[in-house]
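Exam revision sheet. Question 4 asks you to relate a sequence to its structure. Input first:
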Amino acid sequence: MRRFRKGDELSLQIHADNLAIWNNLLDSFPYPFSIVDAVNWVSLHKYDPNPTQLAIVVDDMVVGGIGITKQSDVYRLNAELGYWLGESYWNRGVITEAVQGIVDYAFTNFKIIRIYARVFEYNAASMRVLEKAGFEKEAVHKRTVFKNGKVFDEHLYAILNPDAGKILLNC
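Answer key, structure tokens:
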């Protein structure tokens, strides 16, 4: 994993422009994913001094993305995890390694005591990834997701920062 940089755009566009990926993401993730979308994404994130959105790189090509979204107000010590991976890299352990890496990165670099991820009920592979990375299922939110004209349950997974006590002492 690394920050996004100029030159990532074409590889990002090629791997992100996939209906099978989009079916497991929020509708705000564009599909089709155009080269303009890729240019905008890289431009938005390449100079972030404390990046929360990172490129997943294999053989110097961006093949996915992973990041956290820090929360605010009473949830300010939480972050939401999101990720995607190009379909040709599925089932190779790439995303599990990336999830473990972003958890370590986030807990080390930000005041976060909990990271959570929301998974659509039909995405069993993503649930297995989170479980392998140490996340625990906390809840199933019934009939929460409306995707492709259908309603689905959402599974909520979370992992807690083992150093949460130190963070709380400094709040």
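Marking note for examiners. The helical segments are 9-16, 19-22, 35-45, 94-109, 124-132, 164-169.
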